[in-house]
Description:
The complex is a heterodimer. Chain A is mainly α.
Amino acid sequence: xxxxxLWFGVAVLAWVLFFVLEGFDFGVGFLGPLLGRTDAERGxxxxxxxxxxxxxxxxxxxxxxxxxxxFPDWYAALLSGxxxxxxxxxxxxxxxxxxxxxxxxxxxxRWHARCDAFLAASSLLxxxxxxxxxxxxxxxxALAADGEVHAAGAVGGLTRTLAPMxxxxxxxxxxAGVLLTTVHGATFLSLRTTGxxxxxxxxxxxxxxxxxxxxxxxxxxxxxxxxxxAAVVLLAVAAVAAWRRAEALAFAATSLAVAVAVVAVFTAxxxxxxxxxxxxxxxxxxxxxxxxxxxxxxxxxxxxxxLPGVVAYQLWSYWVFRRRVAxxxxxxxxxxxxxxx
Amino acid sequence: xxxxxxxxxxFAVTTLYHYLFxxxxxxxxxxxxxxxxxxxxxQRRARRGRAVAGDPDRYGRLSLLTGKLLMVTFAxxxxxxxxxxxxxxxxxxxxxxxxxxxxxxxxxxxxxxxxFLEATFLGLWWFGRDRLPRAVHLATIWVVALGTxxxxxxxxxxxxxxxxxxxxxxxxxxxRARLTSFRELLLNEVNLAAFPHTYAGAVMxxxxxxxxxGVWHLLRGGHDAASETFAAFRALSRFGAWATLVGGGVxxxxxxxxxxxITQVQPMKMAAAEALYESRTGAPFxxxxxxxxxxxxxxxxxxxxxxxxxxAKGSFTARVSGITELQQAYSARFGPxxxxxxxxVSFWSFRxxxxxxxxxxxxxxxxxxxxxxxxxxxxDSRLATSVLWSVPVLPLLPMAANSxxxxxxxxxxxxxxxxxxxxxxxxxxxxxxxxxxAVSLAAFTVVYGALAWAWTTLVLRxxxxxxxxxxxxxxxxxxxxxxxxxxxxxx
Lengths: 341, 491
C-alpha cells in the first residue's frame, strides 16, 4: 500500500468535500437574500443549510488537518506563503458562521436583515477568495530554497502574500469560484425548497449554468485539460436538467463539476504539489513533503475506522432533513398547524 | 515589538479568545444533555400516572434555554477554532515543519474523531426535535457532549506534549521529530492531570453562567414567587451553583496533582510562579508579594511557611529548586541563554487563577446556603443582595480564571515552545514580516471584538426572554402528511 499516495488522495477527497458542500453553503448564503424577497422566504433559504452547514465546514478542518499530518511541508509552505489571504478567509468564515447561526435565534426582521447582509457579503467574498486560492495552487508561489516566500522591498511585507492573489489563474479562480457557487447554490436551492424559491432558483440555474459552461469551454480551448472538458459537459447537463426540472440530477451535475475542478487543480502539477516560481528545486513535491511512514500509519489506523463512520452519520443527517423547506407562503395542513402551536 | 513577540501576542490573543467560548460549549452541552434526560424521565413518569414535582415540562424548557445558549456559543467557538488549526502554518511554519509529524496527526485525529461528531449531531439536535424519535433525539445531545470531551482530551494531549515531550524521536539528520506512540502521547502524565483540571474549569464556567441566569430571573425577572417559572429558575440557579462548586473542588484536587507533576517536568515554571529565586527546603508559599517597579525580586512577601514545599512535592520540608539554580543548570545543559520566564506574569497569573476561581466557588456555596430547603431568594437578606451584585460578574470569574491558567502555563514554559527541545524563537515562519502580523492582529481584534459584542447582546436577549416554550416533538409529526414540506419555523 503506497501510503503517501493514499493520503494524498484522502487529502484531496477532504478538500473536494469541503468545496462541494461549502460551495452550496456559500451559494445559499448570498443567493438567499437575492432570491428571497420577504423575510420568510430568505429565512426558508437559510433553513436549507441550517442543520448541515457546520458539519460541512468541518471538512475544511479535516482537509487542513490531513494536509498538516500527511504533508507538513506542504501545509507550512502554502499557509505561510498565503498568510494575509488565508487570514482574510478565516475572518470571513468567522463572520459567515456567526451570521448564519445567529440569524434564527432572535425573531426580529431587523435582526434578520442585518444577519442576512453579513451572511451574503461574507459568503460572496469567501467564494471569490477560495477560488483565488485554488488558482494560486496552479500558479505556484515564490518559494525559496527554505520552502518559504520572502518579502522584497519596503512594502514587501504586504505584497509578499497578496501579490500571488493577483496572478492570472488566481483572478480567474476568483471569478470561477463566484460563478460556480452561484450555479451550485441555485441547483441546491431548487432541490431543497418549494414554491417561489424553487421556481426562482431553477430559473437562475438555467440562466447561469450555460454561461459558465461557455466560459469553461473557452478555458478548455486555451488549455486543453480533459478535466475542464468534463466540467463543461457536467455544467451543460446541469443546465438541461434544471430546465427539465430534474433537480436532483442538476444538483448532482454541479456537485460533480465542482469536484472535477478541484481534483484538476490539485493534480495539475503532480508529482509537484505546489510549484516554486523561483526555482524548480524548491518545488513542494509529494514524496518530498510527505510525513514519515509512522505518522501515516497512525492516521491510517484512525482514518480507516473513523472516516467511514463520519460519512455514514453525515449522510444520515442529510436523510433526516430530506424534506423540502417551504418558502413560507404555502398553507400548512390544519391538524399539523394545531400540533405545531 | 519584534516579530517573535508580535506573533506570540497574536497566538495568545486568538487562543485566549477562543478559550472564552470553548469551556461554555463543553459545559452547556453537558448541562443540556442532563436537563433533557431529566425531562424525558419526568415525561415518562407523568405518562405512567406517577407524581412529578412541578411541571413535567420544566426540565425540557430549561434544556431548551441552555441549548440556545449552547448553539450561540458553539458557533463562535467553531469559527475561532478554525483559526487555531491554521495558525501553526501561518505564523509558526518552522514549528510546523519540525514538529508537524507529531502535532499534525494529533490535530487531524481530533478533527476526524471529535469535530465531525459535535458539528453534525448539534445540527441534528437543534433541528431534529420534530423528526427524530424521543430517545434518538436525546442521544444526539449526549453525542455532542461526548464530542466536546474527546476534543478536549486530544487537544490537551497536544499541549501536554509541548509541556513535557513524550513518545517522540528526533531524526539526527533533519532535526525533525516524529511520533513513536500515540497511546503514550495521550497518556502523558501532564495530560492525565491537565484534562480533569481543564474540564472542571469548563464545568465551572458553564455553572457560573447558568447560576447567574437563574439568580437574575429570581431577583429581577418579575416572576411571582409561587409560579412555576420562579421554581424553574430557582432549580436552574442551584444546578449551576452545584456545578460551580463541584467544578471548584475538582479544580483544587487536580490542580494539586498537576502542580506536583509540573514541578517534576518543568521546575522553572513553578519556581517562577512563586518568584522563588533561592532554592529552599521548607519553602514558603507567598500569597502576596511586592517587587519595586523595574525589578523582578520581591522585597515584601506575605507567606505561609512550608506550604510551597507541600504543594510542589507533598512534604513541608521538601527541597524546592529556585530560579537562580535552575537558570544555571539549564545554561549548562542547553547552552547559554535566558531560561527564566517573566516572573511577575507567572507569579500573578498563578494567584489570580486560583483566587478568582475560588471566589466563584465561594459565591456558589453562599447561594446554595441561602436557597437551601426550598427557600426562595429574597432581596432583603444581606447575603442574597451580595449574590445579586455578583450576577453580572459571576460568569466572568471562571472565564477569567481559565484565561489566567492558560497565561500561566504558556508563559511559564518560555523560552521553550516544546520544553527542552525547541525554542519559541526558532518556530516563527521565516518569511513572515512585522507588518503582516500587525495587520492580521489588527484585523483579528476588530472582527473578534465585533463577534464578542454580537454574542453578548444575543445572550443577554435570550436570557431576558426567559423560559422558552417547548416546540412540538415527534408525536405531533404523525399528523403531518409524509411528503408535506417542512415549515421553516426557526429561521
